[in-house]
Structure formats: C-alpha cells, structure tokens
Amino acid sequence: MHNHRLREAALLFLKLGITAFGGPAAHIAMMRDEVVKRRKWVDDQHFLDMLGATNLIPGPNSTEMTIHLGFVRAGWKGLIAGGVCFILPAMLMVMALAWAYVRFGTIPEASWLLYGVKPVVIAIIVQALWGLGHRAVKGFLTAIIGLTVLILYFLGVNEILLLFAGGFVAVIAKNLPGLSNNSLSGIIAPVSALSLPAAVTAVIPFKLSHLFLIFLKIGSVLYGSGYVLLAFLRSDFVTRLGWLTDQQLIDAIAVGQVTPGPVFTTATFIGYILGGFPGAILATIGIFLPSFIFVAISNPLIPRIRHSPRVSAFLDGVNISSLGLMAAVTFQLSHASLTDPLTIIIALISVILLFSLRVNSTWLIAGGAAAGLIRSFLA
C-alpha cells in the first residue's frame, strides 16, 4: 500500500513538472484540481493550511506544496519524491537550453530570439508585481514598508537585511496599538544606517563551492514570488561578484519563464553558464535543498502557526519587502531589455494582453521570440 502511494505521488508530480506552465498561482490551482477535486487526498481546508504554511517559510511556494502533499500522501519518502519529481523535468529542460545558449547564444538568430523575449519577461514581472501588490499592501503600514525598502535598496542596503527588517517592523508596529503613522519613520529610518557602501562591480574568481553556498543562502532566506529571485541574483552575481551581466541575468529569467515547473530553475541556467553541468547540479541542489528541510520541520506545526498573529504580521512585512526589492530590480533590468522603440512596443503590447485578455505568459514569450526573428530578417 505504501509503495503504491509513493508511486502514485511520484507520477502525479512528475506529470505536473512537465505540464505546469504559468507560474506558482497556476501550479497551485492545478495541484488543487488533482489532489482535492479528482483524487481526494486532502480536503480544501487541509490544502489551504498547507498553502498558508508555505507562505511562512522561505522558498518557492509551488515546489513546497508538492513537498507537503508528497509527505501527506506517502510519508518521508513521498516528501522527497514529490519535490524531486516536480523539479526534475524543469531542471533537465533548463539545462538543455543552457547548453544551447552557451553553444549558440552568440549567433545572430539566438540573439534576435532573446531580443524579442526580454521585453515580454519585463511585462510578465510587472503583471506579477501588480497582482501580488494588491494582496501584499494591506494598509498604510505595509505601503510605507514597501516604499522604504525600494528606496533603501537603491541606496545600497543589503537585500536580506531589508527582508527581515520589514518583517520585524510589521510585528513591532502591529503589536503597539498606540503607534501613530508619523512615528513609523522612527522604526524604519534606522535601517538606513546599516547601508552598505555603494555597489561596485568587482570580478571575483569563480568557485563551484562558492556558487553552491550562494544558492543555498538564497534558498534559505528568499520569501515571496520566484520573481523576487531577481533581486538576490542581481545583487550577488552581477553587482558583488561580477560573474554575470544584466543581459545574461534577464536571459536566465526568460528561460525560467518559457519552461514548466518552478521559476527557481533559473539557478540551473546560471549554474551551467558559470560552471557547466557540475555548476548546474550544485546550483539546483543549493537553491531547493532548504525547501525540503523547512517543509519537513513546518508540516507538523501547521495547526499552530496558522493562528499566530505575530507570525502573520511578520509574513506581511516580509512579503511587502520582497515586492519592494522586486520593483527596484525590475526597474534596473528594464534598461537591459527595453533598448529601442520596438522592444518598448513589445513590452507595452504584452502588458495590455496580460492585463486585459489574461493571455498565458508562455504564448506571449513565443510571440516575443517570433517578433525577434521577424526583426532579424528585416535588419
């Protein structure tokens, strides 16, 4: 019976890993359809409790949901099988695309493909910012935290510090009923004193061990949507280490968008560019390993954490801080993507189609690639 459940969980999440396009929200909707409505592994309340728990821990939400559901269905072996089977298809696809990118990325055809895809990616991130912002901005306090984080990021404050500072500010403010709006600056402003020196790109020799530890760190502290990954990747790999350019970073995000499964497989792409197949494997393990550990620890605690007002307030602060970082980095990356009138037009059309017609992002990326190819024939 146990082996049957394990096989059942592995096959389901392998199927989802191959077919789950559209980002975390779409992934979770597909999971609910499979495990609540069709297979009845859990009821809606249990599903929602697990979804809430994924928001309280760092890491990619949809991947962590597969780990939770695998554990519920088949125990500890199911926990591992659920996550691995969901990640594996995307990892292999991204690795193949990374190989092609390294081998052919400089030829004109590939360059024109990416030329059309990059502005679409910027539009997709803008849509994610808008949608997530409606849920994350829950009042004056969270709005101020988000705006402050955005400003302090441009002033050079460390992104991990900003995430946790936003969470603690929200907890303090919500537990001091007499706190006036005007005194919020007294809590938030001191963070600016912890600002790092102005960012200067400096190339540091590449090491596989360093690559693994960077992605392990990111996987251990990153809250919010997979798009928030942009802030961490740019800060570490572009600004601090000088291992990537902004162009390569936006290409990596584009590949993460065009493949199914978790957006965090962007790490696989970056790992391959920097360190070949060993780099791709280590980067993938590094960024996803913390999710398995956090789910294993948090799953038994779900009934308690969902009722904690302090944990809820901390999460509100971290989420809005994540969006502030995401907005800042999107602004920076737009300079690498919107380089001429045509790319601006592609981005604007993509925004209109996303917001008005809710066109699937995969089709938009395909359209952007086609526009890039057409432009290459006219060049």
Short characterization:
With 379 residues, this protein is mostly helical.
List keywords for this structure.
0% strand; 379 residues; globular; mainly alpha
Q: Taking all residues together, what is the mean pLDDT?
A: 83
Strand elements, count = 0
Provide the gyration radius in Å: 21 Å
Distance between the termini: 62 Å
**What is the count of DSSP helices, taking H or I runs of 4+ residues?**
16
Beta-strand content: under 5%
How would you spell out the order of helices and strands? HHHHHHHHHHHHHHHH
Please identify the structural class as seen in this structure. mainly alpha
Low-confidence stretches: 192-201
Give the helix proportion (percent range).
over 70%
Q: Rough shape?
A: globular
The main β sheet shows up as: none
Counted up, domains total: 2
Topology:
Layout: H1 2-19, H2 24-38, H3 44-55, H4 61-104, H5 108-136, H6 140-154, H7 159-174, H8 184-188, H9 208-221, H10 229-240, H11 246-258, H12 266-298, H13 302-305, H14 309-337, H15 341-357, H16 361-378
Any overview of this molecule?
- The protein is mainly α.
- It folds into two domains: 2-87, no CATH class; 107-378, no CATH class.
- Helices cover 78% and strands 0% of the residues.
- The chain has helices at residues 2-19, 24-38, 44-55, 61-104, 108-136, 140-154, 159-174, 184-188, 208-221, 229-240, 246-258, 266-298, 302-305, 309-337, 341-357, 361-378.
- The termini are far apart.
